Prior knowledge:
Elements: E1 15-16, H1 55-58, E2 63-64, E3 71-75, E4 78-79, E5 84-86, E6 90-96, E7 103-111, E8 114-115, E9 121-122, E10 127-136, E11 140-150, E12 155-157, E13 161-165, E14 172-177, E15 183-184, E16 190-200, E17 207-216, E18 220-226, E19 232-240, E20 244-256, E21 263-264, E22 275-282
Parallel strand pairs: 5-13, 15-22
Antiparallel strand pairs: 1-2, 3-4, 3-6, 6-10, 7-8, 7-9, 7-11, 11-12, 11-13, 14-16, 16-19, 16-21, 17-20, 18-19, 20-22
Amino acid sequence: TNTLTFDYQVVAGNSSADLDYASLTALALNGGSIADAATNAAALTLAVPGAPGSLGANKALVIDTTAPLVAVTRVNGSVRGFPYTSNANVSSIGGSCGTDPGDVNTVRPLINGSGTTPASTTCLSGSWTLTLDAPLASDGTWTLSATQVDAAGNTGTAANQILTVDKTPPSVSSIVRMGAVQLVKSGPLSWMVTFSEPVSGVVVSNFVLVTSGLGGTTPTVGAVTASGGSPSATWTVTTSMAGTTGTNNGSVGLNLVGAGSITDVATNPVSPTSFTGQVYSFDTTAPVVTGVSS
C-alpha cells in the first residue's frame, strides 16, 4: 500500500487549534520497518509542520477537551452569595457563561436537576439570564445549576447553588428562666429567649422588665447575647439589678415588646411583636427553726 493510517487517542487536557505532528522526524519506526517491494527503505523525513504536504496543511483538525465555563451567580438580577435566602418571589436566575471559540451560545438552566421553562437562554458577552415562566413563589429550597456545550461536544456544568424562599415570619417560642429555681433573693437574673428559627437584630430595647414588690434601684435589661453568634434561634437576656432589693413575694418578669428590629435570614420581621415571659419571685424570709425533736 502507499497509504499509512495512524490512530490518535484524544485524552483529557489535549488542545490544538490545528493538529499537526511535532517535527520533521516525528515518524519513527519504533522497531518496525517501511520498505517498497524491492526492499528499499522508505525516507522518513516529513514535510515541515504547517507547510504544504504536512498534516496541518492538509486537514483542519481541532482538538478541544475543555468544557465551557458556566456558573449561576444571580437571583432576580443581582449577584448573590450562596446559599441565598429570599422572602421575595424569584422570577429570574442568571450567571456567567463561556465565550471561547467553539462554545455554543445556548445555556440550559436547571432547577433541582430538571430543565426550566423556558428551557434555555442565550449567552451574551459572557453573561446569561433566564426569566422563569412561573416564579418560585412558595416557601422551599431549590438547587440551581446550568449547562453549556461547545462544538466539540464538551459539556460544562455549573456548580450547584442553594436558593431558599422563606416568606414565613419568625415567632417567639418561649421566654424561660435560666435559673433552676423560681424563687430568688437577689440578682442578676437571666432568661433564655427561643425563636422559631435563627434571627438577628435582637437588642436590649426589645425587652422590658415587669416588676412588683421591689425597692431600691429599678432593675434594667443589661445585655442580650446570641447563642453561638447571630443569627441564632436562642438568645440570653440578663438583667442588671445592682442596688435592687426585693420584698417577700416581689417579682421580676421579662416581656418582649417593640420587636421590629428582629428579623430572620430572609429579613422577615418577627410576628407577633410581643410575648410574655416567665417570672422570678423573691423570697427574702430566712427559714426559722420551729422545733427540735429527738
